[in-house]
């Protein structure tokens, strides 16, 4: 058995395991339904799952894909994947069959884990793509994965890994085009977790409310690693529920959310200074936090939200200061570059811009990913000649070092913290009967921050109904990508070069939800 105090390799699991408290019988995760998991439970269950993976005799670094509902057992699968020296590939549960077919075909996972209810269609896709092992895992501790793991021992030596070995592949569309798998290494994840532990002042006795999905960077790495690397207890929500989260605040000290979670909690009368009194730190990210939300939160709870900025390809890049002596938490900004992270702003000609000038944000550091899975050309395109990653975000850095994001050069809509790529949705719309062409634009939305609205031009003589198009799209695409409205028009506005003027469409529909 490994020594908890001394990680033997750069295996990320070993570093997280080394941070488990000495009292392994104490509570590591308490679910909102009242289940308690001790640190020993986490250790043993991940050992059993890792032993199951070992018994499958897979080459080191095999991809273990999971499209499963959020649960503590899903966390155990993630940790077991690391422990067994494999690569975790989480997939949003909202993805439909065409989306899953693409991810599985592209990543060629050795193991796919899906919900019991999805087994028939997911296994068909997986077996067709050559995956030999398909297991199921429900959010109620059911499924073949746990049944099979129950036959394995609860002691397991973590497989040695180098800092440069992969730990996870996170699909994202990057700046353009089809989804690409961002390859994150053991070293990327560990260095970022340690920097955040220090920057956000994690301390003994901290308790995290974990209410985010765990198939993206925010919930899986920033929140989960944050608690684990500090040996901190988590209060665990399989689904975000504003009333329940507020009710649990008196037992917690740290909360992380996308802006929509803050907006929804502000709508609850139970959110008061007293309810939020025990919390040490509220953190927001994944999408712009409106200054109205930032101010309303301060007024209602007395807390100043700390906003930070990151990406799937880079994990966390910048953060507003935690400690007052480092500066104020400035609403509308994403704070300073984190220690060890380089952030610069460049003009169209590739020249460095002075403080206060707006340009493309580029970054470097030990947190920056290794590249896109099996896409060396795409990877090369997204890096500068001197090795900085082009984020596709547009912003500026002021004289004090605060970074402000003012927009994106990538055509991306961020809705409730999820990314929606207009080109992907337009591609599906254009295939529907009677549709000649389409445009998807992001417009402000009080709950999701921004949502997609479609504008569609019918083929000559075709009768097309916007609601019917939405209904069909719902059968094809993840629900958060579905346009909230679909307008049918005769023509799309174009400039003299023939390019669709999305800015005019955005302007036209900007008050749709206000
Ligand atoms: C749900 N719906 C959304 C949506 N989520 N629509 C647009 N955008 C979203 N994000 C729609 C569904 O399609 C459905 O529509 C209806 O809302 C109800 O669905 P639901 O699943 O019941 O929604 P709900 O549980 O309320 O989910 C809302 C949410 C969720 C805000 C809790 O979206 C969420 O957890 N977002 C967090 C995303 C996240 O973790 N991002 C981090 C990415 S990492 P209909 O019409 O079918 O009823 C990253 C890097 C970084 O970006 O910096 O962190
Ligand atoms: P993803 O591909 O899901 O990792 O999304 C990353 C993108 O989310 C970034 O490139 C930014 O555009 C956006 N983002 C993350 N955090 C913030 C933030 N605090 N403010 C504005 N945008 C953000």
List strands and helices in order, with pairings.
Elements: H1 12-18, E1 27-31, E2 36-38, H2 39-55, E3 63-67, H3 72-83, E4 87-90, H4 97-107, E5 111-114, H5 119-128, E6 133-136, H6 144-149, E7 166-172, E8 180-185, H7 186-199, E9 207-210, H8 217-229, E10 233-236, H9 242-248, E11 254-257, H10 259-266, E12 281-284, H11 291-301, E13 306-311, E14 315-319, E15 336-337, E16 342-346, E17 359-364, E18 371-372, H12 376-382, E19 389-397, E20 403-408, E21 413-415, E22 418-420, H13 422-431, E23 435-445, E24 449-458, H14 466-474, E25 485-488, H15 502-509
Parallel strand pairs: 1-10, 3-4, 3-5, 5-6, 9-10, 9-11, 11-12, 12-13, 24-25
Antiparallel strand pairs: 1-2, 7-8, 8-18, 13-14, 14-15, 16-17, 17-19, 19-20, 21-22, 23-24
Helix pairs in contact: 2-3, 4-5, 7-8, 10-11
The structure holds malonyl-coenzyme A (MLC) and adenosine monophosphate.
Malonyl-coenzyme A (MLC) binds near residues 258 and 285.
